[in-house]
Amino acid sequence: MPPEAGLAGQAAHFRALEGLYAAAPINRFFESTLTIVAEGVARIGFTLDERHFHAAGAAHGTSYFKMLDDAAFYACNSLVSDRFLLTTAFNLLLTKPLGPGPVVAEGRWISGRRRVFVGEARLIDAEGEEVARGTGTFMRSRIALAGLPGYAAG
Fold first, then answer.
1. What is the pTM for the complete model shown?
2. CATH number, residue 77
């Protein structure tokens, strides 16, 4: 296969992962867009509002987890074109409360290419400040990507 065919296949996989993300029912609760920047690198733009807040008026920890897990997960799954990965563990460090507005989750693959992958992510607020960080492990599942709604690599 010529090298450009591999790159075209990789780009198709990235766009298909973006479609998979957009089709996930959970994302009806989060205004967000995934971009696979390169192999092992994902960025997700989120917009938070009061629906995501705890009683004291800032983003609930579940929102932090969702954003960090998704970014690290998709960074890792960008390296796997046949199977869906599953989160097996995730550690969070929350350093600043988030209010309403835009947030970017930046994820990157750290290690692993066979069965278990390690990825990390960080959240950047509208002022460009890091407000949280997370590290996760992700394992290959038996779930074929091609059979999932929204994934249409072509």
1. 0.93
2. 3.10.129.10
